[in-house]
Amino acid sequence: MSRPAEAVQRVIKAYDVRGLVGVDIDEAFVADVGAAFARLVRDSLDQPATQVVIGHDMRASSPALSKAFADGVLAQGLDVVHIGLASTDQLYFASGLLDCSGAMFTASHNPAAYNGIKLCRAGAKPVGRETGLAAVAEEVIAGVPGYDGPRGSESERDVLADYGDFLRSLVDIGGARPLRVAVDAGNGMAGHTAPAVLGSIASLTLKPLYFELDGEFPNHEANPLDPANLVDLQAFVLETKADIGLAFDGDADRCFVVDERGQAVSPSAVTALVAARELNREIGATVIHNLITSRAVPELVGERGGTAVRSRVGHSYIKALMAETGAIFGGEHSAHYYFRDFWGADSGMLAALHVLAALGEQDRPLSEMMADYQRYEASGEINFTVTDAPEIVDSVLQALGGRIHAIDHLDGVTVDLGDGRWFNIRMSNTEPLLRLNVEARTAEEVTEIVDEIGGYITSGARAST
What we know:
Blueprint: H1 5-11, E1 17-20, H2 27-42, E2 51-56, H3 62-75, E3 79-85, H4 88-98, E4 101-105, E5 114-121, E6 125-126, H5 133-142, E7 154-156, H6 160-170, E8 179-184, H7 190-198, E9 204-209, H8 231-240, E10 244-248, E11 255-258, E12 264-265, H9 267-281, E13 286-290, H10 296-303, E14 307-311, H11 315-325, E15 329-331, E16 337-339, H12 348-360, H13 366-370, E17 377-378, E18 382-385, H14 389-400, E19 406-408, E20 413-418, E21 421-427, E22 433-440, H15 443-464
Parallel strand pairs: 2-3, 2-4, 3-7, 8-9, 8-10, 13-14, 13-15
Antiparallel strand pairs: 1-5, 4-5, 5-6, 10-11, 11-12, 15-16, 17-22, 18-22, 19-20, 20-21, 21-22
Family: Belongs to the phosphohexose mutase family.
GO molecular function, one term: metal ion binding
Domain Alpha-D-phosphohexomutase C-terminal: 381-453
Protein backbone atom coordinates (compact mmCIF):
# COMPACT_ATOMS: atom_id res chain seq x y z
CA MET A 1 0.00 0.00 0.00
CA SER A 2 1.38 3.41 -0.96
CA ARG A 3 1.39 6.24 1.57
CA PRO A 4 1.40 10.07 1.29
CA ALA A 5 4.99 11.31 1.01
CA GLU A 6 4.48 14.21 3.42
CA ALA A 7 3.12 11.96 6.17
CA VAL A 8 5.98 9.46 5.81
CA GLN A 9 8.72 12.08 5.68
CA ARG A 10 7.31 13.76 8.78
CA VAL A 11 7.93 10.56 10.75
CA ILE A 12 11.04 9.08 9.13
CA LYS A 13 13.56 11.67 10.22
CA ALA A 14 17.30 12.21 9.81
CA TYR A 15 18.34 9.73 12.52
CA ASP A 16 15.30 7.63 13.39
CA VAL A 17 11.56 7.11 13.05
CA ARG A 18 9.43 9.04 15.51
CA GLY A 19 5.89 10.40 15.87
CA LEU A 20 2.58 10.42 17.73
CA VAL A 21 1.09 6.95 18.20
CA GLY A 22 -2.26 6.64 16.45
CA VAL A 23 -1.66 9.84 14.50
CA ASP A 24 1.71 9.48 12.78
CA ILE A 25 2.55 5.89 13.73
CA ASP A 26 0.37 2.78 13.97
CA GLU A 27 0.87 -0.96 13.59
CA ALA A 28 0.22 -1.00 9.84
CA PHE A 29 2.77 1.77 9.29
CA VAL A 30 5.53 0.12 11.32
CA ALA A 31 4.86 -3.20 9.58
CA ASP A 32 5.62 -1.42 6.30
CA VAL A 33 8.75 0.12 7.83
CA GLY A 34 9.80 -3.33 9.04
CA ALA A 35 9.31 -4.82 5.58
CA ALA A 36 11.22 -1.97 3.90
CA PHE A 37 14.06 -2.23 6.43
CA ALA A 38 14.21 -6.01 5.95
CA ARG A 39 14.54 -5.55 2.19
CA LEU A 40 17.26 -2.94 2.71
CA VAL A 41 19.45 -5.16 4.87
CA ARG A 42 18.54 -8.46 3.14
CA ASP A 43 19.59 -7.12 -0.25
CA SER A 44 22.75 -5.36 1.00
CA LEU A 45 25.67 -6.16 -1.28
CA ASP A 46 28.41 -5.99 1.34
CA GLN A 47 26.66 -7.83 4.21
CA PRO A 48 23.32 -9.44 3.36
CA ALA A 49 21.22 -9.91 6.50
CA THR A 50 19.44 -13.08 7.55
CA GLN A 51 17.94 -11.89 10.85
CA VAL A 52 16.93 -8.78 12.78
CA VAL A 53 17.06 -8.37 16.57
CA ILE A 54 14.23 -6.30 18.09
CA GLY A 55 13.95 -4.67 21.51
CA HIS A 56 11.50 -2.22 23.04
CA ASP A 57 11.13 0.21 25.92
CA MET A 58 8.43 0.42 28.61
CA ARG A 59 5.89 2.55 26.69
CA ALA A 60 2.41 1.02 26.54
CA SER A 61 2.49 1.07 22.73
CA SER A 62 5.92 -0.52 22.35
CA PRO A 63 5.09 -4.28 22.52
CA ALA A 64 2.36 -4.10 19.87
CA LEU A 65 4.39 -1.85 17.58
CA SER A 66 7.49 -4.03 17.86
CA LYS A 67 5.38 -7.11 17.03
CA ALA A 68 3.93 -5.39 13.95
CA PHE A 69 7.45 -4.42 12.82
CA ALA A 70 8.53 -8.04 13.31
CA ASP A 71 5.63 -9.21 11.12
CA GLY A 72 6.90 -6.94 8.33
CA VAL A 73 10.42 -8.36 8.70
CA LEU A 74 9.21 -11.97 8.80
CA ALA A 75 7.14 -11.44 5.66
CA GLN A 76 10.34 -10.54 3.81
CA GLY A 77 11.96 -13.85 4.73
CA LEU A 78 14.24 -12.70 7.56
CA ASP A 79 14.31 -14.25 11.02
CA VAL A 80 13.54 -12.17 14.13
CA VAL A 81 15.18 -12.40 17.56
CA HIS A 82 13.12 -10.69 20.29
CA ILE A 83 15.04 -9.46 23.33
CA GLY A 84 11.99 -7.84 24.94
CA LEU A 85 12.44 -4.94 27.36
CA ALA A 86 15.75 -3.23 26.67
CA SER A 87 17.65 0.02 26.73
CA THR A 88 18.83 1.29 23.37
CA ASP A 89 22.45 0.45 24.15
CA GLN A 90 21.33 -3.03 25.21
CA LEU A 91 19.85 -3.40 21.70
CA TYR A 92 23.16 -2.22 20.22
CA PHE A 93 24.92 -4.83 22.35
CA ALA A 94 22.61 -7.51 20.97
CA SER A 95 23.27 -6.31 17.42
CA GLY A 96 27.01 -6.57 18.05
CA LEU A 97 26.82 -9.88 19.91
CA LEU A 98 24.64 -11.56 17.26
CA ASP A 99 26.22 -9.64 14.35
CA CYS A 100 22.82 -8.78 12.93
CA SER A 101 20.69 -5.75 12.13
CA GLY A 102 18.55 -4.30 14.88
CA ALA A 103 15.47 -2.24 15.69
CA MET A 104 14.77 -0.53 19.01
CA PHE A 105 11.25 0.72 19.74
CA THR A 106 11.47 3.90 21.77
CA ALA A 107 10.81 7.61 21.57
CA SER A 108 13.70 8.22 23.97
CA HIS A 109 12.92 11.33 26.05
CA ASN A 110 9.69 12.30 24.25
CA PRO A 111 6.36 12.27 26.14
CA ALA A 112 4.25 9.12 26.52
CA ALA A 113 2.11 9.76 23.44
CA TYR A 114 5.13 9.33 21.17
CA ASN A 115 6.98 6.27 19.96
CA GLY A 116 9.57 5.48 17.33
CA ILE A 117 12.28 3.18 16.00
CA LYS A 118 16.07 3.40 16.11
CA LEU A 119 17.58 1.18 13.41
CA CYS A 120 21.05 -0.27 12.94
CA ARG A 121 22.86 -2.71 10.69
CA ALA A 122 24.92 -5.64 11.92
CA GLY A 123 27.51 -4.66 14.49
CA ALA A 124 25.37 -1.68 15.62
CA LYS A 125 26.28 0.33 12.51
CA PRO A 126 23.99 3.37 12.34
CA VAL A 127 21.15 3.77 9.88
CA GLY A 128 20.41 7.43 9.15
CA ARG A 129 18.99 9.33 6.21
CA GLU A 130 22.10 8.89 4.07
CA THR A 131 22.68 5.28 5.11
CA GLY A 132 19.27 3.75 4.53
CA LEU A 133 16.43 5.72 6.11
CA ALA A 134 15.78 7.67 2.89
CA ALA A 135 15.53 4.39 0.98
CA VAL A 136 13.16 2.97 3.63
CA ALA A 137 10.98 6.08 3.36
CA GLU A 138 10.84 5.84 -0.44
CA GLU A 139 9.65 2.23 -0.30
CA VAL A 140 7.03 2.99 2.35
CA ILE A 141 5.75 5.86 0.19
CA ALA A 142 5.67 3.77 -2.99
CA GLY A 143 4.42 0.58 -1.34
CA VAL A 144 6.74 -2.20 -0.21
CA PRO A 145 6.95 -5.06 -2.73
CA GLY A 146 5.95 -8.52 -1.55
CA TYR A 147 8.33 -11.46 -1.17
CA ASP A 148 7.85 -14.91 -2.75
CA GLY A 149 10.27 -16.78 -0.49
CA PRO A 150 9.53 -18.54 2.80
CA ARG A 151 8.52 -16.54 5.85
CA GLY A 152 11.17 -16.01 8.52
CA SER A 153 11.09 -17.60 11.98
CA GLU A 154 10.91 -16.00 15.44
CA SER A 155 12.84 -16.66 18.63
CA GLU A 156 13.42 -15.00 22.01
CA ARG A 157 16.69 -14.33 23.80
CA ASP A 158 17.40 -12.62 27.12
CA VAL A 159 20.69 -10.70 26.78
CA LEU A 160 20.45 -8.50 29.90
CA ALA A 161 22.97 -10.47 32.00
CA ASP A 162 25.37 -10.76 29.06
CA TYR A 163 25.07 -7.01 28.49
CA GLY A 164 25.96 -6.29 32.12
CA ASP A 165 28.90 -8.71 32.07
CA PHE A 166 30.23 -7.16 28.86
CA LEU A 167 30.11 -3.58 30.12
CA ARG A 168 31.82 -4.50 33.39
CA SER A 169 34.55 -6.29 31.41
CA LEU A 170 35.44 -2.98 29.73
CA VAL A 171 35.99 -0.94 32.91
CA ASP A 172 37.96 -2.17 35.92
CA ILE A 173 36.07 -0.97 38.97
CA GLY A 174 37.08 -3.80 41.31
CA GLY A 175 39.57 -1.80 43.39
CA ALA A 176 37.43 1.31 43.80
CA ARG A 177 36.61 2.78 47.19
CA PRO A 178 33.02 2.40 48.42
CA LEU A 179 30.62 4.85 46.73
CA ARG A 180 26.99 5.75 47.32
CA VAL A 181 25.42 6.13 43.89
CA ALA A 182 22.04 7.84 43.46
CA VAL A 183 20.39 6.85 40.18
CA ASP A 184 17.33 8.55 38.70
CA ALA A 185 15.88 6.24 36.05
CA GLY A 186 13.01 8.64 35.36
CA ASN A 187 10.67 5.60 35.16
CA GLY A 188 12.59 4.68 32.01
CA MET A 189 14.74 1.75 30.96
CA ALA A 190 17.58 2.46 33.42
CA GLY A 191 15.23 1.00 36.02
CA HIS A 192 15.73 -2.26 34.11
CA THR A 193 19.44 -2.01 33.26
CA ALA A 194 21.06 -0.17 36.21
CA PRO A 195 20.47 -3.01 38.72
CA ALA A 196 21.81 -5.53 36.20
CA VAL A 197 24.98 -3.54 35.47
CA LEU A 198 25.73 -1.69 38.72
CA GLY A 199 23.94 -3.81 41.31
CA SER A 200 26.55 -6.57 41.40
CA ILE A 201 29.54 -4.24 41.95
CA ALA A 202 30.51 -4.70 45.60
CA SER A 203 31.95 -1.21 46.07
CA LEU A 204 28.72 0.50 44.97
CA THR A 205 25.62 1.12 47.08
CA LEU A 206 22.75 2.02 44.76
CA LYS A 207 20.19 4.60 45.84
CA PRO A 208 17.32 4.11 43.35
CA LEU A 209 14.93 6.86 42.34
CA TYR A 210 11.96 6.27 40.01
CA PHE A 211 13.04 2.76 38.98
CA GLU A 212 9.46 1.62 38.33
CA LEU A 213 9.00 1.19 34.56
CA ASP A 214 6.18 3.51 33.53
CA GLY A 215 5.87 4.91 30.02
CA GLU A 216 3.56 7.65 31.29
CA PHE A 217 6.53 9.21 33.15
CA PRO A 218 4.54 10.15 36.27
CA ASN A 219 7.37 11.92 38.11
CA HIS A 220 9.10 14.02 35.46
CA GLU A 221 9.97 13.88 31.77
CA ALA A 222 12.72 11.39 31.01
CA ASN A 223 14.90 14.11 29.50
CA PRO A 224 17.78 15.07 31.81
CA LEU A 225 19.07 17.57 29.25
CA ASP A 226 16.36 19.89 30.60
CA PRO A 227 17.61 21.14 34.01
CA ALA A 228 14.07 20.95 35.39
CA ASN A 229 14.25 17.17 35.14
CA LEU A 230 17.42 17.00 37.25
CA VAL A 231 15.90 18.76 40.25
CA ASP A 232 14.65 15.58 41.94
CA LEU A 233 18.01 13.82 41.56
CA GLN A 234 19.89 16.86 42.85
CA ALA A 235 17.75 16.88 46.00
CA PHE A 236 18.00 13.09 46.29
CA VAL A 237 21.82 13.20 46.17
CA LEU A 238 21.85 15.62 49.11
CA GLU A 239 19.19 13.68 51.00
CA THR A 240 21.01 10.33 50.67
CA LYS A 241 24.51 11.86 51.07
CA ALA A 242 25.46 10.19 47.80
CA ASP A 243 28.92 10.56 46.31
CA ILE A 244 27.48 10.90 42.82
CA GLY A 245 24.16 11.07 41.02
CA LEU A 246 23.37 9.53 37.63
CA ALA A 247 20.33 10.44 35.53
CA PHE A 248 19.28 8.52 32.42
CA ASP A 249 16.84 9.40 29.67
CA GLY A 250 13.85 7.24 28.70
CA ASP A 251 15.74 4.66 26.66
CA ALA A 252 18.80 4.91 28.94
CA ASP A 253 21.34 5.55 26.21
CA ARG A 254 22.29 8.97 27.66
CA CYS A 255 23.75 9.54 31.12
CA PHE A 256 23.96 12.83 33.03
CA VAL A 257 26.05 13.30 36.15
CA VAL A 258 25.38 15.24 39.37
CA ASP A 259 28.14 15.83 41.93
CA GLU A 260 27.98 15.38 45.71
CA ARG A 261 26.86 19.02 46.15
CA GLY A 262 23.84 18.42 43.92
CA GLN A 263 25.37 20.38 41.03
CA ALA A 264 25.08 19.16 37.44
CA VAL A 265 28.34 18.18 35.72
CA SER A 266 28.78 19.31 32.13
CA PRO A 267 28.63 16.44 29.59
CA SER A 268 31.67 18.11 27.99
CA ALA A 269 33.60 17.59 31.24
CA VAL A 270 32.50 13.95 31.28
CA THR A 271 33.67 13.65 27.66
CA ALA A 272 37.07 15.07 28.63
CA LEU A 273 37.36 12.70 31.61
CA VAL A 274 36.51 9.58 29.62
CA ALA A 275 38.77 10.72 26.75
CA ALA A 276 41.67 11.07 29.20
CA ARG A 277 41.06 7.56 30.56
CA GLU A 278 40.88 6.05 27.09
CA LEU A 279 44.03 7.89 25.98
CA ASN A 280 45.85 6.53 29.03
CA ARG A 281 44.95 3.10 27.71
CA GLU A 282 45.92 3.82 24.10
CA ILE A 283 48.38 6.67 23.65
CA GLY A 284 47.91 8.65 20.45
CA ALA A 285 44.37 7.44 19.79
CA THR A 286 41.70 9.51 18.04
CA VAL A 287 38.77 11.05 19.96
CA ILE A 288 35.65 12.42 18.25
CA HIS A 289 33.71 15.39 19.64
CA ASN A 290 30.84 17.28 18.10
CA LEU A 291 31.35 20.91 17.24
CA ILE A 292 29.36 22.32 20.18
CA THR A 293 31.24 20.31 22.79
CA SER A 294 33.50 22.48 24.94
CA ARG A 295 36.85 23.51 23.49
CA ALA A 296 38.30 21.95 26.64
CA VAL A 297 37.82 18.54 24.99
CA PRO A 298 40.15 18.98 21.98
CA GLU A 299 42.59 20.91 24.18
CA LEU A 300 42.84 18.03 26.67
CA VAL A 301 43.01 15.41 23.91
CA GLY A 302 45.94 17.26 22.34
CA GLU A 303 47.69 17.65 25.67
CA ARG A 304 47.36 13.91 26.29
CA GLY A 305 48.92 13.10 22.91
CA GLY A 306 45.69 12.17 21.13
CA THR A 307 44.09 13.40 17.93
CA ALA A 308 40.81 15.29 18.27
CA VAL A 309 38.39 15.21 15.32
CA ARG A 310 35.30 17.44 15.12
CA SER A 311 31.95 16.09 13.96
CA ARG A 312 28.54 17.45 13.06
CA VAL A 313 25.88 17.04 15.73
CA GLY A 314 24.05 13.71 15.54
CA HIS A 315 24.77 10.08 16.32
CA SER A 316 24.88 8.91 12.69
CA TYR A 317 27.65 11.41 11.89
CA ILE A 318 29.71 10.56 14.95
CA LYS A 319 29.34 6.80 14.47
CA ALA A 320 30.42 7.15 10.84
CA LEU A 321 33.50 9.12 11.91
CA MET A 322 34.24 6.59 14.63
CA ALA A 323 34.36 3.88 11.97
CA GLU A 324 36.27 5.97 9.44
CA THR A 325 39.00 7.11 11.85
CA GLY A 326 39.14 4.11 14.19
CA ALA A 327 38.54 6.51 17.09
CA ILE A 328 38.67 5.00 20.55
CA PHE A 329 35.95 7.29 21.96
CA GLY A 330 33.51 10.03 21.04
CA GLY A 331 31.37 12.43 23.05
CA GLU A 332 28.52 14.89 22.51
CA HIS A 333 27.20 17.85 24.49
CA SER A 334 23.90 15.98 24.79
CA ALA A 335 25.50 13.21 26.93
CA HIS A 336 25.81 10.61 24.19
CA TYR A 337 29.11 8.75 24.59
CA TYR A 338 30.51 6.41 21.92
CA PHE A 339 33.06 3.64 22.38
CA ARG A 340 35.15 1.70 19.86
CA ASP A 341 34.97 -1.31 22.19
CA PHE A 342 31.17 -1.09 22.06
CA TRP A 343 31.02 -1.42 18.26
CA GLY A 344 31.40 2.35 17.92
CA ALA A 345 27.92 2.80 19.40
CA ASP A 346 26.84 4.96 22.32
CA SER A 347 26.27 3.74 25.86
CA GLY A 348 25.36 5.98 28.76
CA MET A 349 25.86 3.08 31.16
CA LEU A 350 29.42 2.49 29.94
CA ALA A 351 30.21 6.20 30.39
CA ALA A 352 28.78 5.98 33.91
CA LEU A 353 31.11 3.08 34.71
CA HIS A 354 34.09 5.17 33.59
CA VAL A 355 33.07 8.07 35.84
CA LEU A 356 32.47 5.72 38.78
CA ALA A 357 35.86 4.06 38.25
CA ALA A 358 37.65 7.41 38.07
CA LEU A 359 35.91 8.64 41.23
CA GLY A 360 36.62 5.43 43.10
CA GLU A 361 40.31 5.39 42.18
CA GLN A 362 41.07 8.56 44.15
CA ASP A 363 39.93 10.24 47.36
CA ARG A 364 38.66 13.63 46.19
CA PRO A 365 34.93 14.34 45.95
CA LEU A 366 33.44 14.39 42.46
CA SER A 367 33.19 18.18 42.34
CA GLU A 368 36.94 18.57 42.88
CA MET A 369 37.82 15.78 40.47
CA MET A 370 35.66 17.20 37.66
CA ALA A 371 37.11 20.71 38.13
CA ASP A 372 40.19 19.36 36.31
CA TYR A 373 38.10 19.05 33.15
CA GLN A 374 35.94 22.19 33.38
CA ARG A 375 37.89 25.02 31.73
CA TYR A 376 35.11 27.17 30.30
CA GLU A 377 31.55 28.26 30.97
CA ALA A 378 28.75 27.37 28.56
CA SER A 379 25.19 28.45 27.90
CA GLY A 380 23.74 25.07 27.07
CA GLU A 381 21.46 24.85 24.05
CA ILE A 382 18.97 27.73 23.71
CA ASN A 383 16.17 27.40 21.15
CA PHE A 384 14.48 30.23 19.25
CA THR A 385 11.35 29.78 17.15
CA VAL A 386 11.88 31.41 13.75
CA THR A 387 10.26 31.46 10.32
CA ASP A 388 13.24 32.32 8.10
CA ALA A 389 16.35 30.85 9.70
CA PRO A 390 18.88 31.48 6.86
CA GLU A 391 17.94 35.16 6.67
CA ILE A 392 18.24 35.55 10.44
CA VAL A 393 21.65 33.86 10.53
CA ASP A 394 22.87 36.23 7.81
CA SER A 395 21.63 39.20 9.83
CA VAL A 396 23.54 37.98 12.92
CA LEU A 397 26.77 37.70 10.95
CA GLN A 398 26.29 41.14 9.41
CA ALA A 399 25.66 42.68 12.82
CA LEU A 400 28.92 41.25 14.19
CA GLY A 401 30.95 42.45 11.22
CA GLY A 402 34.67 42.78 11.90
CA ARG A 403 34.44 41.31 15.41
CA ILE A 404 34.44 37.81 13.90
CA HIS A 405 37.87 36.17 14.21
CA ALA A 406 36.98 33.00 12.28
CA ILE A 407 33.92 31.24 10.94
CA ASP A 408 33.07 27.76 9.66
CA HIS A 409 30.01 25.97 8.33
CA LEU A 410 30.53 22.35 9.37
CA ASP A 411 27.10 22.30 11.04
CA GLY A 412 25.20 25.57 10.96
CA VAL A 413 27.54 28.47 11.60
CA THR A 414 30.30 28.50 14.24
CA VAL A 415 31.74 31.93 15.00
CA ASP A 416 35.01 32.46 16.89
CA LEU A 417 35.01 35.80 18.71
CA GLY A 418 38.54 35.36 20.10
CA ASP A 419 39.87 34.91 23.64
CA GLY A 420 38.06 31.60 24.14
CA ARG A 421 34.66 33.02 23.15
CA TRP A 422 32.60 31.33 20.43
CA PHE A 423 29.04 30.47 19.50
CA ASN A 424 27.24 28.15 17.12
CA ILE A 425 23.86 28.66 15.49
CA ARG A 426 22.29 25.76 13.66
CA MET A 427 18.86 24.96 12.32
CA SER A 428 16.79 22.08 13.70
CA ASN A 429 16.26 19.16 11.32
CA THR A 430 12.65 18.74 12.39
CA GLU A 431 11.30 22.01 13.82
CA PRO A 432 11.29 25.74 12.91
CA LEU A 433 14.00 26.42 15.47
CA LEU A 434 17.42 28.01 15.63
CA ARG A 435 19.65 26.43 18.27
CA LEU A 436 22.25 28.67 19.95
CA ASN A 437 25.24 27.42 21.94
CA VAL A 438 27.76 29.80 23.52
CA GLU A 439 31.05 29.22 25.35
CA ALA A 440 33.45 31.65 27.01
CA ARG A 441 35.92 31.79 29.88
CA THR A 442 33.48 33.31 32.38
CA ALA A 443 29.76 33.06 33.04
CA GLU A 444 29.49 36.83 32.63
CA GLU A 445 30.92 36.64 29.12
CA VAL A 446 28.52 33.83 28.24
CA THR A 447 25.56 35.92 29.40
CA GLU A 448 26.73 38.92 27.39
CA ILE A 449 27.06 36.89 24.19
CA VAL A 450 23.72 35.10 24.70
CA ASP A 451 21.97 38.43 25.27
CA GLU A 452 23.56 39.99 22.20
CA ILE A 453 23.09 37.10 19.76
CA GLY A 454 19.67 36.27 21.18
CA GLY A 455 18.66 39.88 20.64
CA TYR A 456 19.71 39.75 16.99
CA ILE A 457 17.80 36.48 16.49
CA THR A 458 14.57 37.65 18.12
CA SER A 459 14.57 40.99 16.32
CA GLY A 460 15.18 39.19 13.04
CA ALA A 461 12.37 36.73 13.80
CA ARG A 462 9.97 39.61 14.42
CA ALA A 463 11.04 41.31 11.21
CA SER A 464 10.48 38.15 9.16
CA THR A 465 6.92 37.45 10.37
